[in-house]
């Protein structure tokens, strides 16, 4: 159980960081470029995990990673980290994109008038203003990854159980006080992060 808990935290943290970084770049690219050809297709690609049933995504990842496994022989946690990161991108993207759309660009324009370079304006103006959305997106991605069962069950190799799949295996056998305690802890963590997400987004609004 301890190994499963550490593995879950490692995968969820990696997925949250990676998906938030990609989501931030995607939000900046789609929100600040105005209308351009292919914008709808990009939105659909980013939000694909939200529109397609999770089981379909899991089977697709299983097929792709199966080919990679057979050709490379690699059986590590990289598959789970990559799968969770890809699945969590839209969950991180939505609050970041919403934050960008509600931001007042006056300060950025003022920085440009004062001869700040684009990098300086982003680092000193845009990023601090965008940080509540980034934090909210990262927390949401972390919760989604931590609680995921379907994708993990399809993608994981032998001996790579997370807390969610470990609990599923225990449920199939018998309920124990250990499983009840894990469920309570996971529920408390999820509620705490979702409450923080709500407070951050409410303060932002």
Task: Using brief descriptors, characterize the structure shown.
205 residues, MetI-like fold, 82% helix, globular, membrane, cell inner membrane
Largest sheet: none
CATH class: Mainly Alpha
Helix content: over 70%
Percent of sequence in beta strands: under 5%
**What's the β-strand tally?**
0
The CATH superfamily turns out to be MetI-like
Number of domains: 1
Number of helices: 10
**Radius of gyration based on Cα positions:** 19 Å
Tell the overall outline. globular
Give the second-level CATH assignment, the architecture: Orthogonal Bundle
Termini gap: 40 Å
Contiguous low-pLDDT stretches (5 residues minimum) are: none
CATH fold group: MetI-like fold
Average pLDDT across residues? 82
Structural class by secondary-structure content: mainly alpha
Give the helices and strands as they follow along the chain: HHHHHHHHHH
Describe this structure in words.
The chain has helices at residues 2-31, 39-46, 48-51, 54-72, 78-102, 106-113, 118-147, 150-155, 163-173, 177-204. By secondary structure, it is mainly α. The chain has one domain (2-204): MetI-like (MetI-like fold, Orthogonal Bundle), CATH 1.10.3720.10. The model has no long low-confidence stretch (mean pLDDT 82).
Write the layout of secondary structure elements.
Blueprint: H1 2-31, H2 39-46, H3 48-51, H4 54-72, H5 78-102, H6 106-113, H7 118-147, H8 150-155, H9 163-173, H10 177-204
Helix pairs in contact: 1-5, 1-7, 5-7, 6-7, 7-10
A few lines on this structure:
The protein has 205 residues and is mostly helical.
């Amino acid at each position: 159980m301890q190994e499963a808990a550490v593995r879950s935290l490692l995968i969820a943290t990696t997925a949250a960081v990676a998906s938030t970084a990609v989501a931030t770049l995607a939000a900046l690219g789609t929100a600040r470029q105005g209308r351009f050809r292919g914008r709808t297709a990009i939105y659909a690609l980013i939000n694909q995990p939200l529109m397609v049933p999770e089981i379909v995504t899991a089977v697709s990842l299983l097929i792709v990673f199966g080919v990679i496994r057979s050709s490379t022989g690699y059986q590590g946690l990289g598959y789970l980290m990559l799968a969770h990161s890809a699945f969590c991108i839209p969950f991180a993207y939505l609050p970041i994109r919403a934050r960008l759309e509600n931001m007042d660009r006056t300060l950025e324009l003022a920085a440009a008038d004062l001869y700040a370079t684009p990098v300086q304006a982003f680092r000193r103006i845009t990023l601090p203003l965008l940080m509540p959305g980034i934090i909210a997106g990262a927390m949401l991605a972390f919760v989604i990854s931590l609680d995921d069962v379907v994708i993990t069950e399809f993608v994981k190799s032998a001996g790579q159980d997370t807390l969610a799949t470990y609990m599923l295996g225990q449920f199939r056998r018998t309920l124990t006080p250990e499983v009840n305690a894990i469920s309570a802890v996971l529920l408390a963590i999820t509620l705490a992060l979702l409450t923080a997400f709500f407070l951050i987004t409410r303060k932002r609004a």
